[in-house]
Amino acid sequence: MAEVKGINREPLSAWLAQALPGHPPPYDFALVAAGGSNLTYIVGDGGGRAFVLRRPPVRARIATAHDMRREYRIMRALSGSGVPVPEMLAWCDDPAVNGAEFYCMEKVEGHILRDLAATGTMSAAACERASDSLIEGQVRLHQVDLEAAGLADLARHEHYLERQLKRWATQVEAGATRDLPLLNRLHRALAASVPEPQTAPGLVHGDYRFDNVVLDGDWNLAAVLDWELCTIGDPVADFVWSLCYWAEPEDSLTWLMDPPTRNPNFPRRQTVLETYQARAGLTLRHLDWYLAFSWWKQACIVEGVYARLQKGAGGGMKVESLERIAARVERYLQRADSILQAA
Fold this sequence. Notes:
Largest sheet: 5 strands, antiparallel
Distance between the termini: 58 Å
Order of helices and strands: HEEEHEHEHHHHEEEEHHHH
Number of strands: 9
CATH architecture of the largest domain: Alpha-Beta Complex
Strand content: 5-15%
Helix content: 40-55%
Shape: globular
CATH superfamily of the largest domain: Aminoglycoside phosphotransferase (APH), C-terminal lobe
Strand order of the largest sheet: 1-2-3-5-4
CATH topology of the largest domain: Aminoglycoside 3'-phosphotransferase, Chain: A, domain 2
């Protein structure tokens, strides 16, 4: 069998056969070509069924972003919470098995809107249903009772925005391969004008969008995936982050290379904003600050991708050329600057 990046076939297969008796060998491992961080595999078993395996990147790991145990714990805790998540099947922290810790979970069948082509069969009603369900899921996530879910100790509750500003600036500095004066200037401006939170701290996903969820056959939310950035923080920041992913057909600068919401059947960003506010019972103050912060943070994240790719580490995702990624970072920073200047 062909070698699969991040998979030690023989010891891993032996472990899976013992840990998952409902999924007998032999196993077929397929790396999912999405995401730039933790690695996701669809594992086919000898009985014709499939499950999902998640592990950290093979190289250039950042401990806080690639904590498999944390991700596993969060999804286990959310089972039955009203936030749909896959069933957790098994956990392994023995590096002798596959070179790093990993976990296995249920494969939830349905639609993942990774790009515009994935929306090709969707009517206006389907796009509206999917959008409404996505927003409702995020509102429910932000309202999870942390104590009841056993997640109150997941992270610090105070000064989330300040900690985010410090975290992303520090990560860029740690992996820096070039000078970005505007990134540093924006960091100082944002840090000097952090708004007071409008809500109590809540559970935040960190990257909530269509291509990180599964929709069922009726376009309702079936499962929320990719919890590696989840923490306790500011729900408004989490929502505005998601809102920035909501590309419209005429947008020339987007966060995804081929955003699904460019399908004109999807609601506009303003409608998404109004729907969230109504469901959450909020009127978002300081929206411009949150938007500028989001564009700056995305620039930091993409700069990290740029730095990792320069060092030869990826996550199985399709990416632009290094030159285009570098230019994208600069355009994101310029957008953040223009929002702050206009506020």
